[in-house]
Specification:
Length: 472
DNA sequence: ATGTTC
């Protein structure tokens, strides 16, 4: 990528002058090795395409875990100025509010001991996994409306501290159940509490290393402690919402005189009827996703109760829950903007009113799942994120091989043996799915996290290593 | 990501 200009040690930029249609620069946080890894794919071309969107402001931004997506790259951030800038469903992605939730158990790995396998097994029994899996909570029309409008607080017996420790308290403003199609509702109505497939998982972990003792204490984490990381999204419901609105907006591009280099960037002014309707449907799907992770967390607590007893289940506290795929109205630099985060995590610094009071002095927790069998990180948002990336950091290790390429390199059965030889308990409905998620298919999460830390976007708090994994 | 090619 010859037109890439180095801005500072961890920031690179393609100037807006590189193409006739770019309105702002395309900027990426990376090191040389990450740049070399993405040189062969289209992710930076996609980032330049994002820089052409009407109303885009600042820069089209990529995190070090960037990889190719549909239209927008995964690991991308784009802010459009309101009221007339566009909103683009592709800038959120098909899995609306895919995200992660971390639970902290009141026991150490040593105390868990040989009950590790039983716990992973109970978790896998409690949570339906795999593509198209039903078997979640079957919702009436009225209850589904309540979930779409209000998120997890519409579920029975939800702990208030779970709600408080969820981004946006699990409820995006402006949710409009009536903007969610009947087909989307049908796909979602029996999927609440199901994991899905692809890179979704529930992982049992141990805090291997505490890097920031003050923040770790605030988050309720200590060395040796057992945690559970839940990664899932809005399932078929969110997928259908994205499908519906990409199609709708694609048909209206000419009416709004919008010219795009890629039809998968289909968008409409955020203030238009189509834009407002999408934002209402997207918020509803996001609320569904938060309710889904709540239902999964409830299942995890039930598994904990079965294996470890009532006291351990009651002492299992939610650290936080973050969205990876969502668009939000925020104020940055005095402007009201619609921040699209696709495979990117909000990372607000200490003092932000958006952070639960108990974390406000340290900053917002962020969770970065590594690839299966490697480490994950707990980070905390830093002021540099507000200055440089609309309050955003990375969301994971980031793919470096396609699913097909990963399957050619390793067999699921072989990978499973390797993981179990390292003491990691594995439960997985599909060996093929396991191979697609092999560590060799992902970038090095330590390097990705180092870039966002050095760039001042987020600071490392703790490193988590897997004890067991339940794959979707 | 996805009733994995409406």
């Amino acid at each position: 990528m010859s037109e890439l200009v180095r801005v500072d040690e961890w920031t690179w930029e393609i100037p807006a002058s590189a193409r006739d249609d770019m309105r702002v620069p395309a900027r990426i946080f990376a090191d040389e090795e990450i740049l070399a890894e993405i040189a062969g794919d289209l992710s930076l071309d996609q980032l330049q395409n994002v820089a052409t969107l009407p109303g885009v402001t600042g820069a089209a931004i990529a995190m070090p875990d960037i990889h190719q997506g549909y239209g927008f790259p995964v690991g991308g951030v784009a802010a459009t100025e309101l009221p007339d800038g566009v909103v683009s469903p592709g800038g959120v992605g098909y899995d609306i509010n895919c995200g992660v939730r971390l639970l902290a158990l009141p026991i150490s790995e040593r105390e868990l001991g040989p009950r590790r396998e039983a716990l992973v097994h109970e978790i896998s029994r409690a949570i339906p996994a795999g593509a198209g899996k039903h078997g979640g909570v079957r919702l009436s029309d009225e209850h589904l409306d309540a979930v779409l409008r209000d998120g997890p607080r519409a579920l029975p017996d939800v702990r208030p501290d779970d709600i408080e420790r969820t981004e946006s308290e699990g409820r995006l403003d402006g949710a409009e159940p009536a903007a969610v199609s009947e087909r989307a509702r049908l796909r979602g109505r029996d999927q609440l509490g199901t994991m899905g497939s692809g890179n979704h998982f529930v992982e049992l972990q141990e805090v291997a290393e505490v890097l920031d003792p003050v923040a770790a204490r605030a988050f309720g984490l200590a060395a040796g402690q057992v945690t559970v990381l839940i990664h899932s999204g809005s399932r078929g419901l969110g997928h259908q919402v994205c499908t519906d609105y990409v199609k709708l907006m694609d048909a209206r591009l000419a009416a709004y005189r919008i010219h795009l280099p890629d039809r998968q960037l289909a968008c409409a002014p955020a203030s238009s009827p189509e834009g407002r309707r999408y934002l209402g449907a997207m918020a509803a799907a996001a609320n569904f996703a938060w309710a889904n992770r709540q239902a999964i967390a409830d299942s995890v607590r039930r598994a904990v109760r079965t294996v470890l007893g009532d006291a351990v289940a009651a002492g299992t506290e939610q650290v936080y829950d973050v969205a990876h795929n969502v668009a939000k109205v925020e104020v940055h630099g005095g402007k009201r903007v619609c921040v699209h985060r696709k495979g990117a995590t909000r990372a607000f610094p200490a003092g932000s009113e958006e952070i639960p009071e108990r974390y406000r002095d340290v900053g917002q927790p962020v969770f970065i799942p590594g690839s299966m069998g490697t480490a994950s990180f707990v980070l905390v948002g830093q002021p540099g994120a507000l200055e440089r990336s609309f309050g955003t950091t990375c969301h994971g290790a980031g793919r470096r091989l396609s699913r097909t390429a990963a399957r050619r390199r390793v067999h699921g059965s072989e990978l499973r043996r390797e993981l179990e030889a390292r003491g990691i308990v594995v439960r997985c409905p599909s060996p093929k799915g396991l191979a697609e998620e092999a560590p060799l298919a992902y970038k090095d999460v330590d390097r990705v996290v180092r870039v966002v830390e050095r760039a001042g976007l987020a600071r490392r708090v703790a490193r988590l290593v897997p004890l067991g994994v339940v794959k979707g």
